[in-house]
Records
---
Amino acid sequence: MSEQNNTNDCLMSIEHITKEFKLSDGNILRACNDICIDISKGKTTAIVGESGCGKSTLVKTIMGIHEPTSGRVMFHGKDITKLSNKEKRQNYRHIQMVFQDPATAFNPKMKVKDLICEPLRSFGIISKGEVEERAKELLRQVDLPEEFVNRYPHSMSGGQRQRVAIARALALEPEVIVCDEATSALDVSVQDSIIKLLVKLQQEKGITYIFICHDLALVSLFSHKVVVMQKGTVMEQLDGDKLAESTHPYTRDLLNAVFSVH
Amino acid sequence: MLLEINDLDITYGDNTPTVENVKLSLNEGEILTIVGESGSGKTTVIRSILGLLSGDGHVSKGTLSFKGRDLKTLSLKEWRELRGKDISMIFQDSGNMLNPVQTIGHQFREYIQLHSDMSDSEADAKAVEILKRMHLPNAENILSSYAFELSGGMRQRVGIAMAITFHPQLLLADEPTSALDVTTQAQIVKELMQVVKESGTAMIMVTHNLGVASYMSDKLMVMAGGRVLEYGNARDILTNPQSNYTKTLLASVPTIGGKRYV
Ligand SMILES: Nc1ncnc2c1ncn2[C@@H]1O[C@H](COP(=O)(O)OP(=O)(O)OP(=O)(O)O)[C@@H](O)[C@H]1O
Ligand SMILES: Nc1ncnc2c1ncn2[C@@H]1O[C@H](COP(=O)(O)OP(=O)(O)OP(=O)(O)O)[C@@H](O)[C@H]1O
Ligand SMILES: [Mg+2]
Ligand SMILES: [Mg+2]
């Protein structure tokens, strides 16, 4: 990456995002509460915290899937929570997401090659004739056999589907990739090679990752910044390699709950 | 012996078998964990016990017996009586098995009444009781919610709650805690072990989390490429792995303070 340490390296700023849902009983649930995070360019920002604390809601707001109740997300000088549908579509050229449940994010009638290359096709980057070759190449990157190009997602294992979702997000080489539990269905050995791939692409192409993950050890080894959330609120933000040294009681609780092998 | 499987081969379509030569046995109150490579056949093995292989999967060789009954000869009616009550399953992505257009409460009540003659109010009370055991805040509210209104980890806990409702004799759990943060995971792991202790339930769990496997299991099976590489006492295998694959797997477990990727 170019030497540019004199200026601000903040690529995206999440500013005072609050998101409320109206529940069926009429009550209001505040899933995200005044969240402020600076996402650094070419770095990995991890988000951790207990189930239901608002991690997926936050990233879905960044992706324009939810409209925030208040606050904004600035990216290239624009508030991306207020885009028109057409602008949103254009924005996906720059930001891609791997969803928490890849099974639900896929059209079950599409073959793997078409799923993987759909973003490339929709931006007119490759022709129909190039789909097969490109899909094979992307499958290889995520340690899947080339023959999977003609499979359907339902006849694959959970971890294989998850890797198809990763391959699809990588296809466009976007500036930002948002990963919501993107490696939770992988065995640790495959996970290791996927993380190495993500890091390699980050170093070569400057890709920025926003990475939601329950595995604190993985987060501590791979992220540049960790954001710890509880009940919709950011509890602390710290450097990835400093996670284990945190003195915040909530972060300590998380660290102490990890099961070790021996 | 509660469950006994010998020389099991499973085939999708008429290809070569996907899984070969599986042998295992389980007594009541025992916990067996299956770990291994993504795509190695873990889900396939446990689904075969419930007679619920996906697509055109079928048992092409071997025997499966549950309480002395040959599972291959059961009629559809006998399967229906067994499933959900004597043997129940927490599916990988169990959250996605929920019907998106019905409330959780509606589905839970239907499930309970399929296997018992409880009234609506008794069934609802039962559902609330079990959801509370899953450490879900505000269980009554969960019943009136739709699946999309819950977080990934909340949906997963609804799936676990349903599967343990009737204290099955055999519980098949496919990645039951993969969507849970470490603190919730610790609570759920302890609840599952409590079910085993209370009711003498035998459990086969698939997980990628070797820490959880180590904490819970009596027996361990390691799979790669459709084959069983190791099977036996969990502690022995984890402290003294024989196959190279198991060694690689153990070495790939991320640990805090380990070698950073970046
Ligand atoms: N569309 C929705 N309507 C109503 N409530 C919602 C909706 N989406 C999420 N919620 C609620 O918002 C809260 C935060 O959910 P979210 O999915 O963001 O959690 P999370 O941190 O991603 O949790 P997990 O780790 O379990 O995936 C939860 O209480 C959830 O029930
Ligand atoms: N319906 C199907 N038709 C054809 N092949 C299938 C089908 N379901 C699974 N497979 C294949 O069978 C193999 C074993 O799949 P299985 O789901 O059992 O793996 P797994 O060990 O559970 O993996 P993971 O950890 O990724 O969930 C995989 O290569 C998968 O692609
Ligand atoms: Mg989530
Ligand atoms: Mg599986």
---
Amino acid sequence: MKDKKLKKVDLIFECNDCKPVEVLEKTLKRDQDEIILDIIDSGLKGRGGAGFPTGLKWKFTKNEDSAIKYVICNADEGEPGTFKDREILSRVPEKIFVGMAICGYAIGAKEGFLYLRGEYNFLLKDLNATLDKFNAQVKDLGLDFTISIKSGSGAYICGEESALFESMEGKRGEPRNKPPYPTVAGYNSKPTVINNVETLAYVTMICRLGAQQFKDMGTNDSRGSKVFSVSGDTPIAGIYELELGMTVQEFVNEFGDGDTKAVQVGGASGSCVPRKNFADTIIGFEGIPTGGSMMIFNSSRSMYNVLHDYLEFFAEESCGQCSPCRIGCQQLLKGIEAVKRKERNPQYLEDLKKLAATMKLASKCGLGQSVANPFTSIVDNFKEEIIY
Amino acid sequence: MSEYLVNLKINDLSVSVPEGTTILDAAKKLNFRIPTLCHHPDLTVAGNCRVCVVEQKGSRALVASCATPVSEGMEIFTNSRKVRDARKNVIELLLSEHNADCTKCFKNGNCELQDLASEYRVGDHVFIDLVKTSARHEIDISSPAIQKDDSKCIRCQRCVRTCHEIQHVSALAVVNKGEHQAISTFLNKPMNDVVCTNCGQCINRCPTGALAERSYLDQVWDMINDETKHVIVQTAPAVRVALAEPLGFDPGNRVTHKMVSALKHIGFDSVLDTDFTADLTIMEEGTELLTRLKKALVDGDKSVKLPMTTSCSPGWVKFIEHTYPSLLDNVSTCKSPQQMFGALAKTYYAQKKGLKAQDIVSVSIMPCTAKKYEADRPEMRDSGYKDVDYVLTTRELAMMIKQAGIDFESLPDMEYDRIMGDSTGAAVIFGATGGVMEAALRTAYEIVTGSEVPFKNLDILPVRGFEGVREASVTIDGCTPEWSFLEGVELKCAIAHGLENAYQLMKAVYEGKANYHFIEIMACPGGCLGGGGQPIPTNEEIRSKRAQAIYAEDSGLPLRKSHDNPEVQQLYKEFLGAPLGHKSHTLLHTHYKGRKRY
Ligand SMILES: Cc1cc2nc3c(=O)[nH]c(=O)nc-3n(C[C@H](O)[C@H](O)[C@H](O)COP(=O)(O)O)c2cc1C
Ligand code: SF4
Ligand code: SF4
Ligand code: SF4
Ligand code: SF4
Ligand code: FES
């Protein structure tokens, strides 16, 4: 694997002669399978966290025999420390809509929905104005595809794709059993492509620039670039689009304040990288993947407090349906409190790590499965801070 | 299910099962038992308890066997180290938020959580006790029928699915998320203030003791021990074919006369039969139906509502009060057999026995929890007293028999006491869906034509079975002059059991899309034999065994038509006069009022 240096990129927000609808017009002239092959070839993986190859997802959905299919843009952005989708939604919404329309054309869907995080309702007015215009343009291009917006109601779990469908169907936002996967039975039990905001914006750019230009960036496992939300102990917090493949060290060199002791990669559900591992940890699917959140902690921070905050978040935001996650989150939280207060001896942390491993193995959805990431990485690397 | 077979390996053994089969069922085929909690054969899959997880080769996470369909070439391990560790951990977690006071719990000895915890020897808390630190301690005893104890709830949602999928009520729902997630009612109101029909189906499917009937065992023991009281007991038709189950027998055993023996042993002063008033119900309800038909067809009376529906299932009555109050005039004015019995116990029976009504304590043994609620209704005091004082479920009677130290198996058979102990086969089949219809047809047809229903051995097979909604029709042939207006009329009937099915049927009636004359509705799946007070567990196989037992009991009886019941004939002669007469009207009939849904 060749070493990548940290490189800033400008694909997503670039908008000099930005006419996304022209990209759509151009792409509609191409064969559907060809478009999908292009997306597969580009190596684009989902930017919502799970990193599933986007082109494959489309292919599976296209292959389903169903008169009704849907395209859904996941704009529920709820991962702590992630705020890049908001920026994309407010600055280049057309790129998202074009990505959705291309998908609709490619897989044979006539309807698209943008599921907007409840807290982002302030964007609704502008988004709807852009959308009205866009829907009309799509019609003029002769494509039978209409997008509308659905507002979420502020639960983190509704960002999980199957919970999102439940929520859209007017039910309680609880994740479903898988299989069936969304490509077979998603919204209204119809084949559905669900993609993150950023993923869809990249689709537009890939269709505009060609797969090769995207593929040339990044590494084998992590092609292209990605939008990062940088926060914490950094003098330059904000949104940055960076080429994939850099190490945490390179990242810290650019964004740290000189006293960085740990970086939480991937938000609360991601993993904590301690200073000693900065140089060997690649940010990407070969190392630690991230939906975009990068939280930097300097030596003034208590990692106990950091973990405590995350666990409080999960204990609150777990949908509560499955036993490992509902009860496990509470036990992890109360467990580190008990160790801190000396009500349980430090050995109890080992029981809790086993519990976290069980949650990873037995929880119903990605939320419960990923609590072990922050828990184990912080407890392993900052045990003293947890105990004393 | 598809014809296509899928090949897979479970614990290194090969098995082929139809596409769509779950890993859980495939394992069953190889006799590998996988523990479950949220799974129930009557309900859709939830996949939330996670105790059924198994290892799938090539998959990073474990998979829920109840929720995962098999796929070609799959390799599954149901008992690997990874599986056992995770499963045990999950059970430990469940116990950490569980108020395990088993000795006091009505599910002790028949609890899926307890079984699992004992199997894995999970007891002392590995994890922090979350029960003490939570506020989920108050038991909701607002309803006279159902109690809800959240401190025993494992959030498997079996009750929620039952109430929604089988009963179309949705009185119970999931609220809040994370640590505050709970099973609750609309606006967290007490159970007695919501749409709950008290059917008890949720109790039958709750794997723990979180949902239970309100028990009146202690009160009944007190009455039995009170020398100044004359305590009588009536037993509903469906009890006799299920009581044996919690006493260690297989489903489908008929123990009518051992049950009578046990009740005498326990100390009831008189052991009587709800079947007696089931026959009486047929006389009243059959006559009511014929009267309605006459008013509608001959007199052209527009105020008469058809189809007429049965009224003997109190869960159904409360359901329609909430759901279609505008159709309440379609409901027969007959009280349920339990309440007819109660009203007569403190009037007719008291008179005949020379007892004062206030000295009589009237107890009933029912397959039903809604009957507890029914007995408490203000409408049910026409004797001048509470017509039925205490209602016990089949389960409570089994507990009573155990408490009394009775060896049930060795009991001699005994006969019901008199009076109000006589019955016919027509009354026994009240316990199965379609039974009231069959009994009513046997009698009404004969009233109208003077001859028996045109079915072999009186078995009206088209109305039997477990199909959710069934239709049948009988063409009336050879009417006596009085009923000549019914000559050649095709009497159209429909039957529904389970309130979801009842809802579908009544929706059609409401929308004017149904042209039936008579509808039988039972709130519970299978009818009373699947009632909310019946032994746990329940599933289609158990219910059909109970149904077979009921029909066997019917065919073995010398009298099989309600109007042949000698005590019923005597009752009309000595006390009531004629069906729908003045006395019947005051004691045996009532009207219900609509209720809001919220
Ligand atoms: C608890 C949880 C929350 C999630 N929240 C989001 C979210 O806010 N936005 C998002 O795009 N994906 C979220 N996901 C991932 C989605 O389930 C899904 O994988 C994604 O939308 C697919 O799009 P992509 O392939 O373009 O990444 C979440 C997953 C989990 C388990
Ligand atoms: S893992 Fe957590 S969020 Fe996911 S289904 Fe289970 S309880 Fe809900
Ligand atoms: S529900 Fe089961 S485990 Fe809980 S107290 Fe009752 S018997 Fe014991
Ligand atoms: S008793 Fe019946 S109606 Fe009431 S909550 Fe239970 S299932 Fe629903
Ligand atoms: S009340 Fe019983 S059935 Fe309902 S969720 Fe709780 S444990 Fe499950
Ligand atoms: S029985 Fe399978 S998850 Fe509960």
---
Amino acid sequence: MERDKEILVMKDIVKTFPGVKALKGVDLNVKYGEIHALMGENGAGKSTLMKCLIGIHPPTSGQIYFEGNLIENYSTSDALKMGIAMIHQELSPVEHRSIMENIWLGREPKTKLGLVDHKKMYEMTKDVLKLIDFNEDPKTLVASLTVANMQMIEIAKALSYNAKLIIMDEPTSALTNKEIEQLFSIMRRLRENGKSIIYISHKLDEIYEICDRITVYRDGQYIGDGDTKDINVNELIKMMVGREVNEMFPKVTCDIGDVKLEVKNLCYGRKFKDVSFDVKKGEILGIAGLVGAGRTEVIETIFGIREKSSGQIYVDGNEVRIKTPADAKQNKMALLTEDRRSTGIFPMLTVFQNVIIANIQKYIKKTGLLNHKKAIEDTNEFVKAISIKTPSIYQKVENLSGGNQQKVLVARWLLTNPEILFLDEPTRGIDVGAKAEIHRLITNLAGQGKSIIMVSSELPEVMGMSDRIVIMHEGKVTGILDNTKDLTQEEIMRYATGQAATA
Amino acid sequence: MTSDSKKLMDQAERSRLADNKKTKVKALLQKYGIILVLLFLIIVISTIQPKFLSSTNIFNVLTQSSIFGIMALGMTLVITSKGIDISVGSVLALSGVVAASLAQVSSATTQYYPSLSDMPVILPIIAALLVGLLMGSINGGLIAFTGIPAFIATLGMMTIARGLALIYTGGKPISQFTPDMMFIGSKVGFFPVPVLVYLIMIAITWVLLGYTSFGKNVYAIGGNIKAAEISGVNVKKNLILIYGYAGLCAAVASIVFAGRVGSVHPGAAAGYELTAIAATTIGGTSHYGGIGTVWGAVVGALVLGVLRNGMTLMGIEAYWQQIVEGVIIIVAVVVDMRKNARKK
Ligand SMILES: Nc1ncnc2c1ncn2[C@@H]1O[C@H](COP(=O)(O)OP(=O)(O)OP(=O)(O)O)[C@@H](O)[C@H]1O
Ligand SMILES: [Mg+2]
């Protein structure tokens, strides 16, 4: 295999959807044995380009050459057979089935009688899993795996097709640091074996750690490509957003007032125990910890999605009973959930409907009818403020890019104008430019005296935004630290891994 | 990351595994809980009414359960694929009258085909199976190619098949079958033939669902239709096969029905589709798709069979029996939802 030759050449790819020109004639060249990053803002067309490549959406025009041959009119299963596999942005295993059934779905090994050969399937699965050093029993149900392990299964599946080109669309957005390291080492191994990987991520540090080359797109157009080592971060950001983003974390310290929300000895089953903290008016409280530490569970419990086993919650010094999210809303709370697919968006509804759904009360006129005009105005304003890329506010949310769906949710909850705002991984999958914009909006809210509780797995984000940081480890609060200048990531990690504890 | 923190993480991993064991016991209980329910019913009924456990009565229960039990087998495939088929009762009637018309003795008082001599029993059987398969495949084709919900497609088929049965018979029942046909409703020695047919269908469905790629596709389509498509599963073809099999099961049930009752009328088996759905549901097949077992469908059918027989033996009024059945169905689904909610 010649390393410098191209395995994939995509030329002048155009893709139009009704009312949207998602790709306006873009190129992509990927070589054998390289990890190639696709970069660009939300809605730039990265996922769409990849969907064209693997046959989900055939391109409107343009040519695709794979291993030197022009390929046309093929389905996803044809693409798989040719050796092109994709790990999707929105993962899609069959949850209630075993690992081996997922990997060999649609092409199970057969006995002479034509029945499925489970024994052989088991052995074959073991062999594939060995390639990525993954020692889970092939009979394990996929539903019982962590997101990271589901991804491992997807990678194993790709390898089982003998894929030569593997596409990974934001694979790390739900992984812990340790899991990301694991993924990277597998990616490096694949590269050594001459496989090519197309890697999509909004996390710049990852791109610089793992990728050999970068291609940048903006608004469905090809902007440029080059070796990672020749492009510095500022240049890269400028290529992506078309301007310079100077302030990633525009944190301004605002006046911090009285305690707004206090939680005392909150417990929920075995998930977390004796969690106590408070948030003041105008304060941003970060909650850090490894994925699985119980951070999401804590805020979901406060918000009434789960019923606490014991403990008290006080708002403005008075104990409140919150059993359902409606109770929480009564107490002027709002929650941006972590998992946008299952608890966030209404994919079939429009951007407009998705944004106002939590705010209907606000727009009811004296006549009992909805004040459409005001609602539309507000929605448009937010769409502009956090630059949601959509042809109009009447587009169905399922047709937006992943990052733009997330922005719709952010808009929904910012619009509720809550006094206490819980944000669970608010910028997951959001590009650098919009991230800064969302950070600015959060800071503004704090400036207006709102209390904000933000869970984030990105330490720079927690440290850049928070006034104080609650750190959790295995369901317990191990520390509540003031976010001073000399606080380091290492210090937080010591609490997050349970090596240090003050609380 | 330091090696210390790695160690700590490993510890966390281990305690998580320990937790897993406890939840495993719980999961087992939830999974096989329906068998406990069946045993509980049997114990309660047989203490109140010892006659229940006599071998004659046990075979009675099995024979009575076999018809909707067979339909529940096809229904298991359908519901596992996240669908529903409410046409199987009508399809049973249609394939039943077709079989009946070909199984009459030539000396019958009102012969459907007057010029027909006694046919070998294989003929009405094949005719019935073809009718069932065809009607079912039409259901599947409608769902696959027009994208209409399974409930709507099969609702249409439910009335159409019933109408066809009425037209075919002119509204009158068909009876007086050949001895071979009646044999299907009788016994070999002490063993009822309907139960034998049921056992064969159980075996076939069990292999189909567990050991063929078709079976894997059923689970995949119900569990995550997108994943199935991306993996190259031909969803349309599989939908036709799934509903075709449900129709086929209804046809098999219709033959057993004809043999047992000795007559088929076009209004036969009205409401049987609901019993089949109930049995499947009680057996733990999830209406959210992707989960379903053959043994569950069998146990579900037995729960209903035991309950009906037991209540009759205990002299409970038929009206009350219906209420008890309804309650059990709802409880079964609530438990099923809990089970799946907890997994999340
Ligand atoms: N099925 C569809 N129908 C209509 N428009 C679509 C469809 N799929 C994508 N689009 C539009 O195409 C554009 C490109 O979307 P795409 O998902 O490729 O972006 P992306 O670069 O992957 O963004 P992100 O980083 O947010 O994932 C967006 O404006 C999106 O709204
Ligand atoms: Mg994308």
---
Amino acid sequence: MDIEKKLINVKYKTDNVPHLVLNQEICKVCEDKVCLTICPANVYKQALSGENTDNDAKKSDTIECISVEYENCLECGACRVACPYGAIDWKYPAAGCGVAYKFS
Amino acid sequence: MTENFREKIDAIVVGAGPAGVSAALAIKRGGKNVVVLDRSENIGSKNMFGGAVYLNSIKSILPNSYKTAPYERFMTNHTYSFLTEDEAVSVNAVGKNQTTATVLRPKFDKWLVEEAKKEGVFFAPKTLVKKLIYKNGTVVGVQTEQEKYFAPVVILADGVNSLLAKQIGLRPEFFPKDMVLSVKETLKLDKKVMEERFHLEEGSKEGAMFEFFGGLSEIRTFRKNKKRLVTPFAIGFLYTFKDSISIGLGVSLEDLANYKMRPYELLEKFKENPAVKKLIKGAEEQEYSAHLIPEFGFNNLPRLYANGVMVVGDAAGLVNSAHFEGTNFAIESGKLAGETAVIALNLGNTRHNILKIYKEKLQKSFVLKDLKSYRNVVEKLYSRKKSILYYYPKKMAELMETVTCVDNVPKKRKFRKFFGSIFFERSITELFRDFKAFLRLFFDIMF
Ligand SMILES: Cc1cc2nc3c(=O)[nH]c(=O)nc-3n(C[C@H](O)[C@H](O)[C@H](O)COP(=O)(O)OP(=O)(O)OC[C@H]3O[C@@H](n4cnc5c(N)ncnc54)[C@H](O)[C@@H]3O)c2cc1C
Ligand code: SF4
Ligand code: SF4
């Protein structure tokens, strides 16, 4: 299912500082990675895919394990509650920033 | 805000949803100065719900609301629909008595705030409270991104995630079992089509609402190299607005996590159910949204007050999620906390030994009474979810077929077969457990 298509209609005012920050050290050893599926806006993605070149793979120690498209966040809080290791430093975006519903 | 003004604040309310505005109105009406802070630029733009509000509840704080509130449609048509994969059995109540109306939160919340401003409540939009200022075991103010506000009493109406209640340890950390995640779409639908489809009188403000059980049952999942059929605990809803409808799902966060399901994929699957598809046909996507519903209920109630602070509405988990009721609990709890703040301010003592009046008032009101009688409902329903969301919808469809299908088989034989199946096609303990859960709920709610 195409989540991008759903998100097109959502209005945001993007904060230039990410409001969601992961402790990637924990993510690296996390088995279930529930954040990858639970998020209604698909904010979290596996950063290293099979398509990465050798070069990328070598850098994998320094590369983050989960990428965070915080710009798409709907501020629901589900990831914060679902992450079993409390690895998400979950804040609200700066005042006036983030999602802005018009018809909900 | 000017220094001069800030020195005069008697109370600070964090969050301008129904709970916060209701609290502020009660405080102002008690002759005290109150400021409401909200992180959104356009008030209401962070908030989503099903949703319908209850006219009596709104009237209890704003008697003129019938004339001025931005009500979209009045719910005259209420349907409970039990779905199987391709069939639906519905119970439909049609009535003229208008006690419930749909609203769009961005419009409704703005209206609430404007009404409060007219009575002299100060309002600061685009103000994010970062943390509470805590001194000698007492909350004495709040720290926003820019400045500090001080007041003898602070009311936390900051919604389900209430980071602030967490900060001062009024509630423990949440677990997935404490929450329902809701995803929803608002879809634009031509008025004429809507009126015909939902049997609403032409040109009227009549409206329809639906709750759906089942339809998302026995879904195939593939995890850890194992195939499984699972039934996530999910309840669907549909509401009609002036020229749009909302279609959504509330899903147990625990099930989403355990089954590794994506909430929007479940929503799409739900929309594909033939009975649902028919209702939303031709409607155009307008907005997608997501929000949590607190489900920790009466048995895990957070502390509702401490020195200098009270917690109201969703922030305190005051929701009856079995009925999607929350705004009424928010408004009532806000009002009772506001009244308590006035008493405390008049006494010049906002410590916990006075603020406990808030909890006593809540206990006497429908808020904690309802939460108490419903304390086991969600847990019990959850424990029997496969029965409720899969087995009984299927049996209801079968029964309807037995009744309606004319096929030269004697009726007696058909009915016998149907009722026999209830006892024999599952293990009898399942039936016994369903019955036990039903009895338990019946006695909890009635006595
Ligand atoms: C899908 C869904 C369907 C629902 N359906 C219904 C229904 O049909 N009927 C019904 O009665 N209830 C329904 N509810 C429940 C209802 O929406 C809530 O119970 C109600 O909105 C709670 O009101 P509140 O004022 O406590 O919190 P909210 O309405 O969540 O308001 C919280 C406010 O606080 C602000 N805020 C948060 N943190 C900060 C901070 N740090 N600083 C400044 N501001 C902050 C937010 O911007 C927001 O405006 C539904 C809920 C959901 C999710
Ligand atoms: S955020 Fe939490 S759930 Fe996601 S990978 Fe990191 S530790 Fe695991
Ligand atoms: S808060 Fe909700 S929308 Fe935002 S990242 Fe977490 S789960 Fe996704």
